[in-house]
Queue: 4 jobs
Job 1
Amino acid sequence: MDRCAGIDWAKEVHKVCVLEADGGPLVERGIAHDERGVDGLCELLVELDVKRVAIERPDGVLVRCLLEAALVVLPIHPNQLKAARPRFRAAGGKSDSFDAFCLAELARTDHHRFRVLAPDSDETKALRALTRTREGLVRTRVSLTNCLHAELEAFWPGAERLFCKIASPIALAFLERYPSPRDAQGLGEKRLARFLARHGYCGGKSAAELLARLRSAPEGRAEEAEEEARRTAVLSLVAALRPLLEQIAVLNSRIAKAVRAHPDGEVFLSLFRDPGSTLTAAKLLAEIGDRRERYPTAEALAADAGMCPVAKESGKRKVATFRRACDKRLRDTLATLADSSRQHNPWAKDIYLRARGRGCDHPHAIRILGRAWVRVIWRMWRDGVPYDPLKHGGRRRLDAAGG
């Protein structure tokens, strides 16, 4: 046994518990989340010769400081900590200090059951920051776009149906110029044609067709005060969406350059037919990382990605349930890969169709296909070799059978 510590992290004050090798408490205190407090904590743990530190998160400033101090960090999932509390307190009580004690005990007695935190390279961290920032901006864009749809549907349905995407640059430019039916009263075919030419419209519809689409929609029934208020709301949403779209485009460009420059970039880019399909490849690389010891087996990667079920067995009852405790970003990205690959890859299409034939619904079939892709991706990732259909055993067998 070695001295171990548990840290219940917080926004302002972290609770720290250090245990002796025999389990006796050595230090129990609160540490302020500032430069002096975090540095003092690391110095204390090094001075006490603490061998392992358990904490409920795998990243953040505190975790980086612990790693820089050459301390072994064990990231503990909140569900695992929740399940461990009854081992030490039957009454069901909970406090930050008690959580720090439970974490220290897990690090002392059960450290062999947890993976040691292995930080990724700087290139992977940078790529992860870019992809997650873009993901947040896309969620905001979707939310604002839905608000814009709702406003237009309420008082001007024609403008909503004029272009294919309401959040496209030309649709936003149109709404900025004509934010209400009253602003578009004098809009004719020639004026609309000049507007389309000025903004580089490439949708393939003539000005007459678009104008007919605009006028065929139901007319708004909003009265003067309401229409003016909704006009202001439309202009506000357009003003919020335009810079958002620009920043998403900037991030797309940065992500494409970053994933191509990454040492493992070609491994993940080789999974996609289109050379421009960099976003999904970048998210896969960012979430899986570049530390090979993190996933010693393909099954470990499949479990972390939520691509395999959770088995529950009790007596004669055996069921498999949906895995909720997983990396949801990685799960969504693998699902995107699986769904797109079944459109052009005969091996992926065969796995998907056979799953559907067994009665699986679409999401279940996608997870089955995703798990099959995990085995391929894991081997590519471990060997650092891009995807080659000629070396893919499942696809070769399908091709030999005439599939």
Job 2
Amino acid sequence: MLSRLYAKWMYDWEFALTTRDKNRIVRPLEWGFDWLPPVPHPESHLNDRARMIALSARIAENSDEFFGYATPTDFRLEVRHPQLFPTNVRPETLARDAELRRKAEAGELKEARFLRFTSPLRSKYPENDQVNARWFPAPRDASNPNQPRQAMIVAPQWNADAFSHNALCQIFNRFGISCLRLSKPYHDIRRPAEIERSDYACSANIGRTMAACRQAAVDIRSCCDWLNAQGFDQLGILGTSLGSCYGFIAAAHDPRLQICAFNHASTWFGDVVWTGQSTRHIREGFEQAGLTQNALREVYRAISPMTYMDRFAATPRRVLVVHAKYDLTFLEEFSQEVIRAFAAHRVDFIERTLPCGHYTTGEAPYKFMDAWHLCKFIRSSFKQLAAGNLDLRAISTPPMPAKDEAASH
């Protein structure tokens, strides 16, 4: 009885949080072929849905090329006042944004350092192509100069503002772990002025959504390049929600990411878009065009974690999966499918379940539970890695660029 009442209360709370923002826009289906690599021999006899499914399958089979890149040559650290870049228009959010701007103008806000570079992959938006990652360097331990240098790349959730996950980075610093908090494609400072939300990262434009995932994975790998150049030889990734998908695909294609924390995890990109409460406006656009869940799963095969499970498991690494029992965005059945896949592939992983939902993970007390699991895992894994107690291969070989991307640099 109590468990049913708790479940109802949690689902009601989760639903309220996912419906409070009124600036979600239903957009019509766009196939977006112009956002993806050209097909050498296009199947002109197929309709658009069949062509996209075939293209996605071809990309998945040649993912080294799709997620390949040339290391950026314009890495630089930029110092400026941090801004919020809100994605909703709730009064409390706008008030917080105004207060931060006031403090910056009055000199009351401390400046921060940001890693900036041009993304190896270009979109149609110049502001999106300037990668941004807030830099949280950990102080060096003078008493132990031989201690391995360790760093995490942090990729927050879809539509995160620029302050999301900063507190986690500061906690990791206390453990001696430096952090790059990545602004994902179309997020905060990278968001085009024409949109209020980070909708272009995931929308009814299928090609653009796939291109955003491609760019995010390449940006994460580029951050690894910069960290290696700074002397960091033990690297990890923390991804939340959409950031979890990006982080998984980046790690599957880059063995340097040895510690992986997936904060909410799912399998097929199309299934999440179709069934998730937070993507209901995207599904509406697909339904209007007659698309089905099964078709969407195949359409998004190239950017689905399950597609790359074999190659992710091929590299020994430590993995944490945090999922929520009452999740209306990443349904529990999908998270359990991830757990079964990890077990079947003999991935060295730990599973933790939160007694809340997707959005309520960011509310007290669940956000503290989540932070505890993440921090405990990352700290202990890096300590074991530094002590040589984990059977992991420390790989720091720079990636091979894709031919088409290398030719443009």
Job 3
Amino acid sequence: MTQKWFTCFAAVSLLFFLQCGGPRTAAQDDPSHLRVNVVLVQLNVAVTDNKGNYVTGLKPEDFSISEDKIPQKISTFEESVEAGHMETARKDQPHARDAAAKASNVEAPLTATSAAGVTIQHLTDANVFVLFDTSNYMYRSFVFAQDAIADFIRSMDESSKVAFYSYSRNLSRATALTSDHFRIVSGVRSTVAGDDAALYNSLLLTVKDAAPLKGRKAIVVFSNGPDNASSVPPEDVAELAQSTGTIIYIISTRVAQEDPVSAAAFERMSKVSGGKAYFAKNWREERQAFASIKEDLVHLYTLSYYPQANPNRGWRSIKVKLNGKELEKYHLRTRDGYRLLPVAVQPSEEFTSRANEADVK
């Protein structure tokens, strides 16, 4: 079996991934390095009411998880400190009222254990990759886009780590994950416009970098046009994001009606990963989209479980629901499954070295 045939086969099967040909740079790694072995399944869950307001203060026992209809036992449960303690309690959210009342007097411990043996943690941090379209589609609004991204990065909690990547035909890993947000903003300001747009190739590589990380991990894509240079389909990106628990948010400056094919791909990739797609008509809506993503990241519940015995070695379907009649009225958003793959994900060598360098600095 030749290396070229093997690489093409791997891209289709998703056991391995990336380009089967076309231009590549040293930064774009050998796709055969990506294989996944899911031991602990992590879910990021957004809970909202009928008005779109986030529901806070829920407990592990309020959730039920099944995988291929097999009930699962929640192992860990995480909620942002900001979501659980700084949210204004609403009358239709009894759990939020309780959390707010307790927060007014007592600071919650970072880690606790529920009566059912679930480890409960309160977090404020996340790992966020910003992927910026610098293709020739972006020429007219380049500066406005940089401003919106810079403001988003500044708004992140100080403990959150952010990486800044850009793409045109190839992916540029401008700044590795770091909590030094000033350094990230400097990377944003140093970007320059390029040529064609290979979004799906670049997004797939970014998912690979995010895959080995623990905790909440998300990719925020800022796109100004359709993909015209990738060799992988958006379906591959979507499935890999699902299988690695990576949330994808996409902000497109093109309204959906202008490019329905790309719009449908953007919506599917984000939805199945537990994220959202936004179509912004102007710079004000771009800023609003970034603010919405920030709020979403803050209000996510993160649940994990060790899968029960399951003979299915392929795609596994996940269902999450809320327990009790008073909670049935709320809406859940999370990924709906994952594919079990054989070997653990390893980040690219370049990503690892840059991340270590950033931590040292």
Job 4
Amino acid sequence: MGSDDRVMGIPQLIHFQTLVTTGALFLAIVAVRVLEQSAGIDSLLLTGVIACLALGLLIFSADFFIEGAKGLARRGGLPEVVIGLTIVSIGTSLPEILVTTTAALDIPSSPEVADFAIGSILGSVFVQITLIMGIVVVKNGLKIRESWLKRDGLIMLLAVLLLTFFLLTNYILERWEAGILVGLYITYIGWLLKHRKVIQLEEEENREEVEVRGSNWTTAAYTIMVIGGLAFAVFAAHHLVEYASMIALELKVPQAIVGTTVSGIGTSLPELTIAIMASKRSQGVAIGTLIGSNITDPLLSIGLAGLIHPLAISSQGFDFIVYILMPFTVVGCGIALLMMRTSYEFKKWEGYTMILIYVLFLIVLESYNRKWITF
């Protein structure tokens, strides 16, 4: 990403690989859409191509945004640990935030899109806590800090339980409930900022946990990263929701399942990338990246969507969300925290166990699709 010994500016940014890739994906989406409209082609293949391009653009633009936001925060004097728990967790959750809020805007005309938003958030949490965390742990067994686990791990579990409780009451996330979720997240961030010096002292006791990645850009370059990354991400999120919904309609697949699998896995790729890079240090910062995102998603991401429009579980997605996705997500979080608590270490065999839980979920999902399981 660059050397810390040399300050890079806008001229270097133009040739920055992430920007080039982001721009190429944006132009590819535009080109395919022009082809689709001008040639009058309306095929499932083109719809799938645009959805995949949009997912790729969402991931790269989020990465671009994270780099800029972290850089600006460092220049503002915030400690790295607070940056990781706030800006990085929000940044890696940016795809989920944009996907759910974009879906919420479409609910008045397509009520079933609420299933997509709910499935995206619960699916993202489940994917990260099982499949992605399992991959990271299998790659490098991780040690866990007791103070970190008691604070952020417990908050993650409570956030998932609270969201589940709100959704199970009348099977709708009301605006006032969404407001509570967002308010709790703001309180959490405020607490971190208020106690940033204490947290930083705790981190300094473990000298191995250092900045995962970084570059030395000018303030102008960082600002362009933030603005450009956000703009591209908004564009990508809109197209991902639109075309993923079209695919679901064409294949007669419930919106909740598309949100859980395609969107849930896709929007979790930034967390996977950062967590794997962090795991090279064999420290809890890798898991901290995932847990931080899993606090942001069930509080801020879906909370913002619920403030835009209440999220009601439709009859088509009810069985899958209530009887399959919710139980797997809650149980997955509980098992992950229990394994972290044993000797405060996440061993490789435990990583394989988390991956197997995700495989079991896929088996149940396939059985449900084939009507082998009914409720």
